[in-house]
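A quick aside before the break. I want you to see a complete sequence-to-structure record at least once, exactly as it would be stored in a machine-readable document. Don't worry about memorizing anything.
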Amino acid sequence: MSYTNRYEAIRSELVFSYTILNRATMDLDSFRKYCLSFPHATEKLQWEEDLCFKVGGKIFAILRLGSVPPKVCFKCAPETFAELTERAGIVPAPYLGRYQWVLVEALDALPGHELEALIDASYRAVAAKARVGRLGPGGQAPRHRSRKLGQPRKRNKRSKRTGI
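That is the input. The structure line, written in tokens, reads:
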């Protein structure tokens, strides 16, 4: 094999590999596994057909199982929201678009590595609000306590019962 033929063979193989890596899309199972790989991430089937991925009780991604092809919804930064909604197959999420959530109408609308990066950013944004570092049992965010443990509750004068 001559040098130019060998060069062309290697070059075409590299271009093919690069194309495969950049075009590789996620399927349902790989998307689910990726979302559950985050610390404290849980899944819950809500609204009959939506698989919601949560951290600290707050949703960071939604996978619509009832639609064909499956749709994905997630939160993103305002500048990313503007960029993504200009692409074909990506629209502001119904009811959530004003909060910078996007709806990807098919999993193949974005390359796998880009979708992973966007889900990662969504997880980080939601986890920061959910205060993941202070999660209690069951992965839920702790409730605000206005008093210390062991102290009696303060009662209003109106809350005392009168013996009528």
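Two observations worth writing down. The domain at 22-131 is CATH 3.90.1150.30 (Aspartate Aminotransferase, domain 1). The first helix runs from residue 3 to 23. We'll return to this after the break.
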